[in-house]
Amino acid sequence: MQITLLSSDSGTDPGKSPLETVLEINYWCAGEVAYEAGDDRTLSALSVWKRGYGRCGEESVFAVNVLRSAGIPARQVYAPYWSHCDDNHAWVEVWVDGNWHYLGACEPEPLLDLGWFEYAASRAMLIHARRFDGERKAWNYDTEEPESLREEEIGSEGMVTMENEIRRYADGVQTLEVLVLDEKGRPVPDLPVSFEVVNYAAFRPIANCHTDMEGKVRLSCGAGSLHLYCGRQDKAAEEILDTRRDSRITLTLQRNIEEYSWQEFDMIPPSDRTPVARRPDAAQKEEGARRLAALRTRQERKRKAWENPDRNVFVNEQKRKSEKEQRMGRALLKILTAKDQTDVRLDVLKDHLSGAMLYAGTVPEEIFIKHMLNPRAEDEILTPYRRWFQHEVPKEAQERFRNNPESLWTWICQEIRECPEHERSTVLTTPAACFRIRCGSRRSKAVLFVAMARSFGIAARLNEADGTPEYWKQGRFMAADPNRRKDCVLVLRAEEPGTWRYSQNWSLTRISATEQKVLRLRDEGWKKQKKRFFWNPVPTG
Questions:
Q1: DSSP state of 251
Q2: CA–CA separation, 502 vs 201, rounded Å?
Q3: What is the mean pLDDT of the chain?
Q4: Which pLDDT value is given to residue 465?
Q5: What is the spatial distance between Cα 93 and Cα 112, in angstroms, rounded to a whole number?
Q6: What are the residues facing 203 on neighbouring strands?
Q7: How far from 73 is each of 37, 118, 150, 162, CA to CA, in Å?
Q8: What pLDDT is stored for residue 523 in this prediction?
Q9: Which long-range contacts (CB under 8 A, 24 or more apart) does 290-294 make?
Q10: CB burial class (10 A; 0-12, 13-18, 19+) of residue 444?
Q11: What is the per-residue pLDDT for 522?
């Protein structure tokens, strides 16, 4: 991406200060990218720029890259989940004149420290930034170091260090101290404690911190309610805490995980605060609105004109193919997500079509299209790998895996090591890379199973609810891991089924020894006031 910032309406000049440069860059960003909701996969900054739109996480990735390219230190900041309503939000902070300042990505204002989200941010229980150097440092709560330089580390996701920024946005921030004891009253060191808020009808984690050698963990958070959970083996502890009243709490691992009952509770979000930043005057507002209107018009023209050239080439090439391959080519394009349509590459389309056509007719066509031809398993980057796997893995091994797909999962678990300290759980390693370096997270290994299975003529998928790798056999999908087979049926009954919407007013969470995981279920309605789920009641592995 090459960016020229010269004109007064779209860029900067060498005589501008860093603050003025930031403001001008964000105006330029607004002329290139606008907001639109999308799926969970985060596009690259270049892809967002090309197509001209993205969700808030993608807008902020784009803006951070542009700012850094212009020599401005910048980072993405997240409210992982709001405490007063559903959803979350991402924006940008820039380092200017010795302090961090915030701005809405591709949402320019005449001044820094302005944004529609500032009231919402002041009601958040936690706001974080991420540092990708993999280095953890001790944080001194009692230091007199200037606030602008203070970074409270609240845990890590593999190589990523999470930094707590709530003090910059909210009043009444509390320093919460949690002590975890075992059944005999002894401190429990190095135990993950999940701090959660209610969002989308479930407890959603905003931070996961490990206890120190004294069994303690501390966290700065907003003045409101939190749900705390920790577990080890078959014992667990949880509590709903109002930090306005209590800043210290002891959790004792003593209750069996199975021992749950109905409990009523209130979750209280923090109160919002009056913005502390300087506000633009009437002239600044008028000029800002004029500039933004012009830039948005330009962005809309760009967006409407965008067509993925690789997709267009694929469509034209298909016109010279056989009728059967043309039909499967159309099916391949149709099954891609709307986001995939905008950035999928030609080599990806050709590889997945040609690699899958070798096994056309081996399973029902609907299963073939959705679970063999389909190049997507989860939220991974789409890459060409089918022909590579078909060439790289010996034919006899492919045949063995086709005859016994469970052996493919066993091979992956034995050969692909997990290196959580060098990864990030939310970033998937591509299938070919995972295979070559023999390393990947559990999610990456699950995607690798689907990729290799489909390459070898096995219809495969990840279970939508819990991500279990599954393969098609004898007219149904079966878990590749025998320990994750759905061998029970859960039946829910609703007196007024029309009022119950999944992730709006109800959800299901799977509780294990160390975590609570919300299931990703589709709300496809109720049949005769009932809803049935195939269920694996004892999570293992």
A1: E
A2: 8
A3: 89
A4: 84
A5: 10
A6: 198
A7: 27, 21, 16, 18
A8: 74
A9: 291/9, 291/27, 291/108, 292/27, 292/30, 292/108, 294/9, 294/31
A10: buried
A11: 78
How much is the pTM? 0.89
Task: Identify the three-state secondary structure at position 434.
Answer: helix
- Of residues 400, 378, 413, the one with CA closest to residue 540: 413
Q: Pick out the chain residues at pLDDT < 70.
A: 1-14, 134-150, 257-260, 513-514, 535-541
Question: Tokens 């007063």, residue?
Answer: 84
**Could you tell me the two tokens for 13?**
């000049």
Q: Would you say 279 and 236 are in contact if contact means Cβ atoms under 8 Å apart?
A: no
Amino acid at 497: P
- DSSP-assigned letters across all residues of 479-529: ESSGGG---EEEEEE-SSGGG--BTTTB--EEE-SS-EEE--------BTT
The DSSP code for 77 is E
- For 186, the token pair is 């002894």
Report the relative pairing of strands 174-181 and 248-252 from DSSP bridges: parallel
Q: Residue 209: is it exposed, middle or buried by C-beta count within 10 angstroms (0-12/13-18/19+)?
A: buried
pLDDT at position 477: 93
| 24-58 residue pLDDT tens | 999 999 999 999 998 888 999 999 999 999 999 99
CA-based max dimension of the chain: 75
Which is it for strands 89-96 and 99-103: parallel, antiparallel or unpaired? antiparallel
What is the pLDDT at residue 528?
Answer: 80
